[in-house]
Specification:
This protein is an all-alpha fold and 109 residues long. It contains 5 helices and no strands. It folds into 2 domains: 78 residues, Helix Hairpins, CATH 1.10.287.1080; 31 residues, no CATH class. The two termini are 18 Å apart.
Length: 109
Amino acid sequence: MKISIDDLQAYLANRYCGWATEQSMFMKLVEEIGEVAEVLNKRAGRKASDENDLHEQLGVELVDMIHYIVAIAAINEIDLTTLMIEKDKKASVKYHHTINLETFLSEKK
C-alpha cells in the first residue's frame, strides 16, 4: 500500500486536531530526533549496541519523525505537498538542478 503526504496529513489532522498542540507535537519530534541520533551512533560504532537490526530500527525512528512533522503541519493546516513543490522549484533554480520535483513527478506518470 502506498500513502501520500496528503493522505497522512488528513489522517493526522483527524487524529490530533482539537486537542494536540504544536508544542506537544514538537516535543515528541525532538524526542524522536534523539532516538534517530542514538541509532546512527550505534551504527557508526560510537555507542554500544546489543540490537540486531539497526537498519530496521532506523527506519522505524525515521517514520516517527515524519509522523510528528506532518502532524505539526496538519494541526496548523499547512499544505505540505504544495509547499514542497514550490520550495523545490526555487531550490532547483538556485542550485541549477536539471529537474525539479514537479517535473520529475509528471514524467514519472
